[in-house]
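Internal tracking record. Fields below are filled automatically when a chain is submitted to the structure queue. Please do not edit lines marked as system-generated. If the sequence contains nonstandard residues, flag them in the REMARKS field before resubmitting.
Queue: standard
Priority: normal
Entity type: single polypeptide chain
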Amino acid sequence: MNDFFNTKLFKYGTLIADLMILSMLWAVCSIPLITIGASTTALFYVTTRQISHREGYISRDFFRSFRQNFLRATAVWVILLIPCILAVLNFVVLNYVSKPNQVTLVFQVVLCAELAGVAVYIFPLLARFKLKFGQYFKNAFYFANRHISTTVTAIVFLGIAVKLFMRWPILIIIIPGVYAYFASTMIIKVFRKYLPDMDRDKEEEYNYKEGLDETPYIPDPPEPTSPEVK
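SYSTEM-GENERATED OUTPUT FOLLOWS
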């Protein structure tokens, strides 16, 4: 019994320590703000591999993903950020000048919800799959609207995480890693609906040098894509 509890305590203690390290790496690498996309992609690269029991060295894997996905992840971050800023500014201006009508409010809410849904999936997609640039958005949009319960749950978790951070900023040392880990548990399940064997090859058959395998990833939409899995 003692061995059981000692093993469990060690396991969860190690996980918490890993998530704290990840959170601090994410926070430091996100300081320039423009690098948030690359940092988030690297964060999900590590947590999705942890969920699949394929983790390596936390910092090495984080920085490898950060370097490899920097340009694409930064471009995705900017593309998502611009409409978010415009929507917020538009909402503020409309409320300041005059009371917005219901159609405008509904449109803005739907737009923000879709952007949040795409953001939930697009960084894990960037982290784990090689796709053409536009396919990241296409697949993220598809997942966000096809798997509503997962999308809503992830967005709610994200909202809670942001609220906790706003109240207690010191939680930056743990919140990013915890959110990414729990979101990854749900997102990996979604990915496996389309790629059942994802991350299920034997450890010794996995190419750690390249970090890729050759299993195709085929989603449901009419035009399937076949990226490599990282």
